[in-house]
Write a structure and sequence with these properties.
351 residues; alpha/beta; QueA-like; six-stranded antiparallel beta barrel; 8 helices
Length: 351
């Protein structure tokens, strides 16, 4: 396989193509890299819609933003209640856009998903989107998801993916529904090299959601609300970097969502848990993140819209042409794009 490629989008110096391994040479001492350390759940579950007997695939897609049913009131792990996208019979070999609709779903419907039993608790404004509740103790639910589930995947990867295929090198708590795939550009050798060159490294944990539902109307609602957690060490690293005039480099769109949400009130990132509910796009004034390393995204997706907060449409159009001309690979196992800031951010003092 050819080495991964990196397109550098620099509004001041134009476009440059380099091997992705040269990322460290583009950065400078005093920068801070912030990555998402979420591990990916085996969030695709095949089974049966019990009332109709029809085959279905349930793709766990997020956490409920309203209080759960609490049939399992002792579930402090948050593993019993999810929102999910449901398809009819079939699997990832069929393009998501071509997947059949599920049978008619109603609140109270039972779902048999391998060893797991679940019930539809609500319809969420679309025939494919539901909230569901898993029956049983948290340990039983975790075990059932681990044994029966598979990674969410799409037809551009023809072979079935194993769970370790969708874990980035820094993966830690299993809370993501699809991989925070920009993190595939990192490895521990590179992170050690960051340290040796005075480039900081910190993490957040953000429950990355699914990237496509196969339905244009439902895709317009992406990204769904996504919980995140920012450690105190990351809060302090960001404050030190900004006080010293360094740049905050986000590894992936999920990091941008988390940091910008956390800094929404006053421009400072505060440690703790939150729920990223905002959409980031051309009208967004970025208050925390200076630059973004991300994958190759298609127009008309929420990921591409987020890029418009970093660069104008003329710059992004030129980047699109360069990506196509040089055969950059899209999707989660593809090549990368680094969007650098157009101008230095004003230095802020530590809170």
């Amino acid at each position: 396989m050819n080495p991964a490629k990196l397109l550098i989008v620099d509004p001041r110096d134009g476009l440059r193509h380099v091997p992705r391994a040269m990322l460290i040479d583009i950065l400078r001492a005093g920068d801070l890299i912030v990555a998402n350390d979420a591990a990916t759940l085996p969030a695709s579950l095949h089974g049966t819609h019990v009332p109709s007997g029809a085959s279905i695939e349930v793709r766990l897609a997020g956490r409920p933003t309203t209080p759960p049913r609490s049939a399992n009131a002792k579930d402090s792990t948050g593993v019993a209640d999810f929102c999910a996208v449901v398809f009819g019979a079939g699997d990832f070999h069929t393009r998501t856009e071509d997947r059949p609709q599920p049978p008619a779903l109603s609140p109270g419907d039972a779902l048999a998903l391998g060893p797991l039993s679940a019930v539809v608790t609500a319809l969420l404004g679309h025939t494919r989107l539901i909230s569901l509740h898993f029956e049983g103790a948290p340990d039983e639910i975790w075990s059932g998801i681990a044994r029966h589930g598979h990674p969410v995947q799409y037809s551009h990867v023809p072979r079935p993916l194993a769970l370790w295929d969708v874990w980035t090198p820094i993966a830690s708590p299993p809370v993501a529904f699809e991989p925070p795939s920009a993190g595939f550009a990192l490895d521990w050798q590179m992170i050690a090299a960051f340290n040796s060159r005075g480039i900081g490294f910190a993490t957040i944990t953000h429950a990355a959601g699914i990237s496509s539902t196969g339905d244009i109307e439902l895709d317009r609602r992406l990204p769904f609300d996504e919980p995140y957690e920012i450690p105190l060490s990351t809060e302090r690293a960001i404050a030190r970097t900004r006080a010293a005039g360094g740049r905050i480099i986000a590894i992936g769109t999920t990091v941008v969502r988390a940091l910008e949400h956390a800094g929404m009130a006053d421009g400072y990132v505060h440690a703790g848990r939150g729920l990223a509910t905002q959409r980031i796009g051309r009208e967004t004034r970025l208050r925390v993140v200076d630059a973004l390393l991300t994958g190759v995204h298609e127009r008309d997706t929420s990921h591409y819209e987020l890029l418009r907060a970093f660069a104008d449409d003329q710059t992004l159009s030129a980047a699109d042409e360069a990506l196509a001309l040089h055969d950059y690979r899209p999707h989660e196992f593809g090549d990368s794009v680094l969007v650098l800031p157009a101008a230095p951010r004003l230095t802020l003092g530590a809170p």
